[in-house]
Design brief:
The structure is a homodimer. Chain A is mainly alpha-helical. Chain A has 11 helices and 2 strands; from the N terminus they run ααααββααααααα. Chain A has 2 domains: 75 residues, Arc Repressor Mutant, subunit A (Orthogonal Bundle), CATH 1.10.10; 146 residues, Four Helix Bundle (Hemerythrin (Met), subunit A), CATH 1.20.120.530. A two-stranded antiparallel ribbon of chain A has the order 1-2. In chain A, β1 and β2 form a beta hairpin. Chain A binds a DNA duplex through α4.
DNA sequence: GTTGATTGGGCTAGTCTCAGACCATTGATG
DNA sequence: CATCAATGGTCTGAGACTAGCCCAATCAAC
């Protein structure tokens, strides 16, 4: 990765990650696992969703059927029907984390963690560096409050919502997409980490620090706060690499 | 973008940017415009390139033919033949910038600038935050020296190389790809900006500051140095939005 | 109940894309 | 000058994907 060919690797990477079906399954799984569509809610109607995803309804339906058979969705016909999310993130059990880490491979893991660190810090910095309108500030503080009031059941979903809103509030779709992508790549890991009260308290303090720095308009502090927050996760995961 | 639906927009975005042909043209144009394949050099052989891009040779050849007809490539048959890059970035003329900005639209422009700011600052921060081996440090300083010694003809290409090596040196392919993507989205803009000596001198100072901060292992300073550097470009472009 | 709007289910004809094989050209090498 | 390896040029049959259409089920409203 040190020589001239690094950029060839970067730019001449695969144009498509797989076929349309696979990519669609992946994308829907994103929406479900990131909690964009919460358990009990339903996906948009097939026709609308197909347009949004830029694929045909046939392909979308194949993907939905795969997720249905895998137990993520419950599809019901007729008016007020739809594809309802049944997936509830399982409570992490001992050994889950080690298994997930082993499944990913150390290279992908460090790549994902590095990527997440860069884009989330960048997003926080950018957001802190621009004047925050009152309503945007309200959104951020609302997400923080929601997260602090969350049950264990909802915690990961609302944590995701909080983190992603930082990127969304910058107003850059590209940045929001990058952060969503980064989050997804570590979501299996996060779901496998036991949620201990001491860790949650620690995270809550860090979340408040992030919001405070953003509201104060201090890019350096925002960057540091996010970095510190993510470093906690990274350090925990790195312990499993040795 | 402030409500719940922001994440729906983010996650349920199009699965594919277009058909395989269009995406391939775009990707090859990246390689050419970013100077990954310099003028006079040739692309890898079709068979190899098709495998790398994950597409069929037929589709790749259609893309190559399009770029040939558009004047970017000169394709020669036989041994030692290949698709040679003929494109040389044109010297910016007055009015180019205004036209390019108008073509992009203000929304896409601010999106691209914001995205670039976030990922490049994030990359510099990450790189500064990890111990730099001697050879990696040498690569970075080599790129800086190359850039400082560049002719006007080579400047943009080597500037790209310098900026991208920061992301590449983090060792994260995802981050490298994000930075390459960000750079590409502003490359037409950068190419339309007249290269004035005073600006080049200014940029050179900032580039040195970035390298110094990275080498010193100071993430905050690195982040600030990159932010300041990119802010110059952004400010110049924003002037065309009013 | 009947109706009507909304939603999933399914079919078909046509286009895009692919894998693989074979042909044509070039030019360094012996 | 003949050879041959590397490279672009071309064809074909199969599979993936799409657009558009109509059918079937459901359920609130009347």
């Amino acid at each position: 990765m040190l020589d001239e060919s690094a950029r060839l690797m970067t730019v001449l990477r695969p144009v498509r990650a797989g076929n349309a079906f696979e990519e669609t399954v992946e994308r829907l799984l994103q929406a479900i696992k990131l909690g964009v569509v919460a358990p009990g809610e339903k996906l948009p109607p097939e026709r609308e969703l197909a347009v949004r995803l830029g694929i045909s309804r046939v392909t979308l339906r194949e993907a939905i059927r795969a997720l249905q058979e895998a137990g993520y969705l419950d599809v019901r016909r007729g008016r007020y029907g739809g594809a309802f999310v049944t997936y509830v993130p399982p409570r992490p059990a001992d050994g889950d984390l080690r298994r997930v880490v082993a499944d990913m491979g150390t290279a992908d893991l460090t790549d994902a963690l590095t990527f997440r660190m860069a884009v989330e810090c960048g997003a926080a910095q950018v957001l802190a560096g621009t004047p925050l309108t009152a309503d945007r500030r309200a959104v951020l503080e609302r997400r923080l409050a929601d997260l602090n009031a969350a049950s264990l059941e909802d915690y990961r979903r609302l944590d995701t919502a909080f983190h992603l809103s930082i990127a969304e509030l910058t107003g850059s779709p590209l940045l929001a997409a990058a952060c969503a992508d980064a989050r997804l790549r570590v979501s299996d890991l996060l779901n496998a980490i036991p949620m201990l009260q001491v860790n949650l308290d620690h995270a809550a303090t860090q979340h408040r620090a992030i919001v405070a720095a953003v509201v104060a308009g201090d890019p350096d502090a925002a960057r540091r706060a996010v970095a510190e927050h993510l470093e906690g996760t990274a350090a925990l995961l790195r312990a499993f690499l040795s």
